[in-house]
Task: structure prediction
Amino acid sequence: MRLQKYMADCGVASRRACETIITDGRVTVNGIPAVLGMSVEEGDDVRLDGKRLTPQAERVVLMLYKPRGVVSTSSDEAGRKTVQAFVSELPYRLYNVGRLDLNSEGLLLLTNDGELANHLMHPRYKVEKTYRVVCDGTLSASEIATLTNGVMLDDGLTAPARVTNIRRSTTGGTAFSITIHEGRNRQIRRMLEAVGHRTLRLKREAYGPLKLGDLRPGEWRYLTKEEIDGLNEASGTK
Result:
């Protein structure tokens, strides 16, 4: 088994994040510094920062309503509240499936299942995410078409999106829903900036087949087996 997959199965992080941890020189296998691409076998002594790793037998996935003003990381140098504060009492080492930026809110998945997390985040599997957005001003027909067909950002053209439920917001801007399957940094905010608008509110309401439902900011719940099966199917995870 590849080392990064073994680490993900131990609940360290997603496979992609584990690759970075390996290249940072924080991992040893049988006392030897690990290198990216190496494999491990049953009985090997794998350690992260000197602590031995063991696979977690129980896999869990939960849905959290991330409030605005909370950081989507396990720790924060500035001392800001992180999403881990809401699940700190649980007996699992959980990590985020992707992120929501500081001023965004809504559905965030946390899990100790590295394989599922990797598939959900990888653009190859095109797992859709739907957001409710409020921006300043009025979106024109041509701007909506640009958002739908793809926006040229500094890291390339975005994939086609779906823009629906467009209406005038109570704040005088434009409210709408947008569905994307990419996960670039601050993608929707940057897409709107590219067509001349500032994002006033951004809330993720759905991830694949999951909907946020009636969760309130800061609340979380475990996913049911049926919901996890739906995520596995949507992401092509075995």
